[in-house]
Amino acid sequence: MIMISEIFSSNYILYESVRVIVLMVVAFLVALAITPLWYWFIKKYQLMKKIRSSSEAPVYNKFHQKKEGTPTAGGLIIWTTVIGLAIIFGILNLFFDGFWSYFNFINRSETYLPLAALFIAAVLGLVDDYLGISKIGTNGGGLKIRFKLVFYILAALIGAWWFYFKLDWTVLSVPFLGNFEIGFWYIPIFIFILVASAFSANETDGLDGLLGGVSLFAFLALTVVAFVLGRYDLAVFGGVMMGALLAFLWFNIYPARFFMGDTGSMSLGITIGIVAMLTNTVLLLPFFAIILVAESGSVLIQVISKKIRGKKVFLSTPIHHHFEALGWPESQVTMRFWIVSAVFAALGLVIFFLARVL
After folding, report:
1. Residues 121/271, Cβ–Cβ less than 8 Å
2. Does residue 220 contact residue 290 with C-beta atoms inside 8 Å?
3. What secondary structure letter does DSSP report for 186?
4. Whole-prediction pTM value?
């Protein structure tokens, strides 16, 4: 029996390229296949979105009250596909070494942490979704923001410990200037990146298909970077994430059949941050995930302006609600944000490649 590696023995780059694409397609098909089952489950057990009425968010209530009763927690499709494939192919490779090594992408230094973070954040997000559905928590909306921030910080601390003490990562890459030894400062930077990316993803998840689309472009850019750096298992992980996201978007684009929920947004945000740290592209993350930066930035600007000036800068935040208030249809806001994401992700890759050759 001819091994797959023998077919590509003369071109290892081609071997790994095909591997990323094949696993992405497999993830897409698997996610599509399990979607009807999950959709039946959330409909049967009435896991429906509850829209909180609040005088503090009139724009949100005006445009989104009609979405009351839409199934939520659809982000489970994404992370169960990724983690499920990792476990299945890992076990098959363990007991049937050879052919299945082609599909296995579990790697201690490359994918342990993103897989673990994806799972832990997704489970906590699922708990938050359940609390929101059950109208438990602040104003019946699930976990308080400060509790989520505590979780983000704890998760980031664990990740920082793993990177700093287990992987000996103490270097920060600055495009065009090179790598700089930052020592213990790596830990607070790591914590900031993970908390910021998780918070930003949560803020971005407000329109049909919005977070799924901008996350897709972020993972595309990060996958290209991982591949160029020779971290092929991490690149495969990125490809699997993209495949699962594409399948999710099939049902989540406007008008969405179900929402992502915190189980999706929390896990996606933290995972994007971790992959950025693994590829040492922290300073390029604002390009790869420009919309996440804009969404959380608009919230911070609004809060600071109201505290200091007593006035709003935006009609509503996060910023996608501002454009809704201006009269942009929801689908138009989403598609234009996708376009911005694609352009800035491409620009980030240009900077990455130029920094390597100049």
Report:
1. yes
2. no
3. H
4. 0.91
Query: What are the backbone dihedrals phi and psi of residue 54, each rounded to the nearest 5 degrees, phi first?
Result: -150, 135
Domain that includes residue 196, residue range: 4-280
CB atoms within 10 A of CB 113: 21
DSSP 8-state secondary structure symbol assigned to residue 75: T
Q: Is residue 304 domain-resident?
A: no
Q: How far is Cα of residue 129 from the mean position of the Cα atoms in its chain?
A: 17
Which residue stretches of 205-327 are H helix? 210-228, 232-252, 262-278, 285-288, 290-308, 319-325
Does an H or E element contain 147, and which? helix 145-161
Tens digits of residue pLDDT in 91-149: 999 888 777 888 999 998 899 999 999 999 999 888 888 887 877 766 555 677 778 88
- 184 located within any domain: yes
Q: What is the DSSP string of 120-131?
A: HHHHHHHHHHHH
How many whole angstroms from its chain centre is CA 172? 22
80: its two tokens: 């169960």
Measured in whole angstroms, the distance separating CA 77 from the mean position of its chain's CA atoms is 13
